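Sample intake sheet
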Amino acid sequence: MSNLIQEKVLLSNLGIEAFNEMQTKSFLTIQDQNEVVLLAPTGSGKTLAFLWPIISQLNPEIKQVQCLILTPTRELALQIEQVWKKLGTGYKVNVCYGGHSMQTEIQNLTAPPALLIGTPGRIEDHLVRDSFRTQDIKLLILDEFDKSLQLGFHEQMATIIQRLSHLKKKVLVSATPCPDVPDFVKLKHPVTLDYIVNDQHNHKLQLHWVRSTDSNRNKIVVQLLSTFKDETALIFCNQRETAESLCNYILSHNIAATFYHGKLEQEDRELALIRFRNGSVHFLISTDLASRGLDIPEMKHVIHYDLPGKLDEFTHRNGRTARMYESGSVYVLASHVDHLPKYIDPNIPEFVLPTVTSIPLAPQFTTVYISGGKKDKINKVDIVGFFLQKGKLAKEDLGLIDIKDHYSFAAIKNNKVNSLLKNVYEEKMKGKKYRIQIAK
């Protein structure tokens, strides 16, 4: 298939009109060069930028792993898998990460994928177990490699790279300007593509400070959220406990919100992101875990409940809004503009809260849990058909549907949830009865 025909097919599968400048340049560079460092901000489409050129590097005659992608988090690994599947290449992909069933992963690897995605710790574990062979891995991609180093994956990454003795191409991807590349990667003459701009000079991004003190900060956040109407926001805290307590305070004011951090169980982490993604909640309170590498939608607002210690983390957080062609606002809570850290422009304007506000508009959707998933041979078409026929929903009553290995989630219009649950209570989907309830 020619590159032109292939490009048209991929665009059709992705539902977009064209690749952006960064993606096109990355495609050509990764094809032609053996060592590439791609620097691009969150939301710029860099996942697609490195997945697109992989296709031409794979050989359909080889039934082994040919490309390995290492990522710092399970969420990023799953996001990359989703983008790859949308491309519709026909090449198999598997994802390996901590918290996922090791036995399931080993079973999946008995029929090796062409593309393997995983976190460093879990991939190293599989190499120790000889779950897959490395002789045919010619391409290695380290996505958000600087984050992997921050999380302490030095030894695992070094061990993995040492085992990949037949590599021909290495691609390092980061959202951090000019990150240090460790010696164990063994780059000799890399070509660097730098698409990072300073967010504080991004004219699409409006930066404000909001007057607050430690004693009234929660109250100020609620007042600020009330000015957003039905627009979404991501609120960053430095500590897990702070994120949870702030979320509980917001919930106590009848505002739909959820929290997210690294100590949550995997299913709870997935549910928090799903509810935010499908519009069941408008506000996500999180630690820096949500600053990059997550599949969450474009949003209008980012709030710094706590400020990070470094500029690069501040930049990553802000990268969640004003992405691509959209505009957005960032709010920094402080008692006075002079108390802001040196990495923030002291001339940023103050956002003065109105004296009278009403709570934000409630979300239109509720997330419903279904006790069956991919391993039960359930797909989106099955759920849509079941809810329309047995649940007596109209198409517009259904929102986003997420299918996991052993369970699924669907967004349902609020005013249809109770009737849906009643209608499907005794019904079977594909000959089997599944538990269906409001996700909690």
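Comment: The longest strand covers residues 205-211. The chain has three domains: 3-194, 199-339, 365-438.
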